[in-house]
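Figure caption, in words: inputs first, then the predicted bound structure.
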Amino acid sequence: MPLAAPEFIRPAIRAMQGYQPGEQPQGQSSVIKLNTNESPYPPSPKVFEAINYVLTGDRLRKYPDPVGWEFRRAASKVLNVPAECIVIGNGSDEILSMAVRTLVPEGGVIVAPTPSYILYQSLAQIQGARFHELPFEKDWSLDANKLQGIGHLTFIPNPNSPTGTFIEPENLVNWPTPLVLDEAYVEFGEKNGLSLVQEHPHILVSRTFSKAYALAGIRFGFAVAHPSVAEQFYKVKDSYNCDVLSLAAATAAITDQAYLQEMKNKIIATRAVLSSALVELGFKVTPSHTNFVWCQHPDQFEKKIYEELKARNILVRYFHYANWGNGLRISVGTDAQIAQLLDELRMILKR
Ligand SMILES: Cc1ncc(COP(=O)(O)O)c(C=O)c1O
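Bound structure (pyridoxal-5'-phosphate present):
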């Protein structure tokens, strides 16, 4: 039973449920974890070197660089954007939260597509803002005309979660509200929205190190924004939001693009195997631009499949969206993990 919230808690917080992240089983190494889109591979060896360097020096005693210049200079070279445009965050979730605090007044409106990342709704509730859902069109595009002028901020995950679909960034240039392109999974696709930021100050890009860079445990993300916008974000963020270890890890990881490419290629190859095997098992699979696959079964209950997999120590994510439907989001694991998942699915579905 949840405790009754004291009266002095803000009504908006009392009323909300709170975001429920995907399960993180503790101490059960036998679990095959395909539920929160972490990388199945370790981060670049350069990350371990960088962390060791920090640990053996005198860096833990002192505060980190509050604005992360070393990381920003490294990212600037790799991404070909000025370092002034980059804002560091404690995971990209913090970047999303900064965007809300910087752009959305209390009583304002936050827009996001359905189905998409559930955290956006929680961020709206925390801010005391209204959440407006904009359903995807049948071809996974979005029709901005349907907003009819409302909204102080729109979040578009691109590629989207949980569907893995992608919208050409050029098609979003004239979006009628400030727009955060949440590019948490962009490294697994072909294109991104970075080139839009310089010329369109109302467009921001958010990136994470939790997926392709295999650093979910370190908590690091960043925004790329027009310098006039980035400057405002720096007023809003916590003073020392990124610690010395995460800054060192992220700087080393972004510098090692060859390793990133190698891991990306492996994951994309396994994604193709997983997708076609799921089709053979009767699932409807949406073509993915990410490190996960979204699938729906026309004549089986996805929730039951999720539960049966869980009983066999395999975690995937089950989503149910009111007015939209159910499905399973399966992160791409190693080849061996995916082979085991498919064996279990064949038994569950008796194929
Ligand atoms: C669309 C999307 N955005 C942001 C995040 C958060 O990433 P981070 O670990 O950087 O906070 C996730 C994590 O699953 C995600 O799916």
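The CA atoms of residues 51 and 245 lie 6 Å apart.
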